[in-house]
Amino acid sequence: MLPAQDNYRLVSGFEFSVLGSGSSGNASLVRSPGTAILVDAGMSCRQIVRRLAAVGQTPEKLDGILLTHEHSDHTKALGVFCRSYPEVPIYASAATRRVVGENLGAAADWRIIPKNAGFELGEFGVTSFPVPHDAVDPLGFVLRTGAVALGILTDAGHVTKTIRHHLGGCHALFIETNYDPALLEADHHRPWQVKQRILGPHGHLSNQQATALVRELVLEDAESELEFLVCGHLSSDCNTPEKVSAQVAEALGQRESAVGVCISERAEPTPLLRIAGRAGGAEAGAGEGRAREAGGLSGSPAARVREPLGVVAQQPVQGDLFDAC
Ligand SMILES: [Zn+2]
Ligand SMILES: [Zn+2]
């Protein structure tokens, strides 16, 4: 199965994997030694279960599912998941809970995310913040254990002062890079109205908008401790990983070698990233030593991403994104 979970002890910080991301489905796992959280559930239940298994997580041991918003590419597993694993609570804003709950077709253990206040989910402190997107109450999140923070921003039409405020100081970021403007412009399949929705202030972030935010957070903050940047929610036909990579490299400039960059895909989970914070590096290093012996791992975050399977071996994931649970 997944030997690495027994081979090292995570001394500080936590782990993060985007199980899959794209316009057709999104889900991520955030896990500390004592708490596992699924962020969004936008694939088939079977795919989520398989992808959780690939990173050593059993679904019934999840401490909660955290929802960003109600769109089906973030929630489509919930009906089957709740019938299969009713013990796992769902955390959502009151408005998102109402909309998703109406269509769920299954009882769920709902927990309402407080407005303008943080809350605890197991070992994590969670802060939510509003995001401009065409949903009833879309949220971004910062999840913290100790001093280590992960910021999640997916499905946002533009970057606000509030978003900048919350994502500043994070050690890892998962940010939407949805489309390349030239590819979207040249696309002949989408009706004009759909293009306007995507481009609009409540649609999605382009590569340029997302990387401008990254530049601001990293280059304009001398104290930035960003270790990992994960890009996600790429449009399958109006974006490419190559375009995102080029844009990210330009945005990070001389800081590129200090930040591990990973582009999440629709078809398979990202490596399980171990986010320890630079201050926690020595402690985490003890665990890495064992991982190094096992699989070969060099020290910088970037290298950790480039040699992901040396950190945590993953199971290949079978089946289609939309197969039934
Ligand atoms: Zn959405
Ligand atoms: Zn989405």
Kindly summarize this structure in a few lines.
With 325 residues, the protein is an alpha/beta fold. It contains 12 helices and 14 strands.
Characterization of this structure:
This protein has 325 residues and is an alpha/beta fold. The chain has a single domain (4-310), classed as Ribonuclease Z/Hydroxyacylglutathione hydrolase-like (Metallo-beta-lactamase, Chain A). Helix content is 31%, strand content 20%. The chain has twelve helices and 14 strands. The strands form two sheets. A seven-stranded mixed beta sheet has the order 6-5-4-3-2-1-14. Strand 12, helix 10 and strand 13 (260-263) form a beta-alpha-beta unit. Helix 9 (207-219) runs parallel beside helix 10. The longest helix is centred in the C-terminal third of the chain and has 15 residues, at 281-295. The chain is globular. Residues 1-10 and 280-325 have low confidence and may be disordered. One zinc ion binds at residues 26, 71, 73-74, 155, 233.
